[in-house]
C-alpha cells in the first residue's frame, strides 16, 4: 500500500513561524514534523509515499529528497497553487495508482495508522476518528457500529488519517476542490466506515499546539 501526505497548505494559522519555513518542516522534538510521519509510515511497512507540495515546495523537496534517507521512495506532486485536499489528491492519482491508499494530513500528529484491511470491498473511505479537542468541541461526524455519518449524536473529530479509494475523487472536474463534500456524499451512500482511536492525537495547527506537542514528545 502507498501513502500520501498532504503538505501543500500555506500554514496561515502557524504564522509567524511559517513566514519563512513551510509547516511540514517545523521542528518537533528535534526533527521536522513531516519526518515523524515518514518514520511512522516506514514502521508500518509502507515504502512508497506521495507528498503534495505548493508553498515553499522547494524547501520541502530539498530537505527530504527522494526518500532514500528514510529507506523509502518519495514521489512529489507539485501544485502551482494549493488545490485543496480533494484537488490535491486527484492530481496525485497517477503517482498513487489504482489501489486504496493511506492519506495523512501533514499537520496532525498521531501514533496510530489503520490497517488496509479496515477498508471493506464496497466502501470508498475508512476514517480514523478521535475525541473532540477543546478547540473543536462540536466534532465532525458520528460513528455508529463502524459506520460514519455526518449526522447523529456522540460526534467525534476526523483525525486527518484515512484509507481512500481513488474512485472517491477521480471523477471530479480538475482543479481545486474540498474532500469533505465527497466524503459526505459517500456517507449518504453508506460507503464510509470508521473507527475511534482514543490515544494521543494533536492537530498541530497553531504555534501553541506545536509547542505543546514538542514538550510532550521531549518528556516522553
Short description:
With 220 residues, the protein is of the alpha/beta class. It has six helices and 13 strands.
Task: Give a quick set of tags describing it.
nucleotidyltransferase, 6 helices, nine-stranded mixed beta sheet, 26% helix, Spore Coat Polysaccharide Biosynthesis Protein SpsA, Chain A, 220 residues, globular, alpha/beta, N-acetylmuramate alpha-1-phosphate uridylyltransferase MurU
The largest β sheet comes out as: 9 strands, mixed
CA(first)-CA(last) distance = 30 Å
* Average pLDDT taken over every residue: 94
In helices, the fraction of residues equals 25-40%
Query: Which strand-content bin applies to the residues?
Result: 25-35%
In CATH, the topology is named Spore Coat Polysaccharide Biosynthesis Protein SpsA, Chain A
Give the second-level CATH assignment, the architecture.
Alpha-Beta Complex
Structural class: alpha/beta
CATH superfamily: Spore Coat Polysaccharide Biosynthesis Protein SpsA, Chain A
What is the string of helix and strand elements?
EEEHEHEHEEEEEEHHEEH
Rg of Cα set: 17 Å
Number of strands: 13
CATH class: Alpha Beta
How many distinct domains? 1
Low-confidence stretches: none
Coarse shape = globular
Please work out how many helical segments DSSP would assign: 6
Protein architecture, described:
The chain has helices at 33-43, 57-64, 84-96, 167-170, 180-188, 207-219; strands at residues 3-7, 27-28, 31-32, 48-53, 73-78, 101-105, 108-110, 125-130, 141-144, 147-149, 155-164, 192-197, 201-203. It has one domain: Spore Coat Polysaccharide Biosynthesis Protein SpsA, Chain A. The chain is globular. By secondary structure, the chain is α/β, with parallel strands linked by helices. The strands form 3 sheets. Strands 1, 4, 5, 6, 8, 9, 10, 11 and 12 form a 9-stranded mixed sheet that branches. Helices cover 26% and strands 28% of the residues. The chain has 6 helices and 13 strands.
